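Can anyone check this?
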Amino acid sequence: MAYTYNADTYCDKCGEAICKTVRTEHPELVPEDYMDHGSYDSDDYPKSYDAKWNESDSPDHCADCRAFLWNPLTEEGYRYVKSMLDKHGEKLPSHASLWAQAYGFSRFDECETCGFECDECECDCPKHVREWRS
């Protein structure tokens, strides 16, 4: 479970904490039926959703604690992650390593001349394609 509130996404723990704060400090904003998501705005009160089923154009992290929400990606999301991985090359920041693992990317090195993977290449060609693939 995850939450959307004020144009951000939150993990279950942080989303529940926001709900509690709003209920305590602004009870007038709490909807009569918080499960009826059409009856209120997520700027007023957090809306729950299943992050594991809602596709996004990028990996989602909790806006508060930065926990990765393990959401599925759209085609655009896969292109975004691939371009980010290619930009960083082999030395990935920790969040990018997690994304590579979560979305099935692995490092691929291929010789443009002979087409073999670089570690199997026997030619002296300096042209090698080094990229991430899923």
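Reply from J.R.: I decoded it. Residues 1-72 form one domain.
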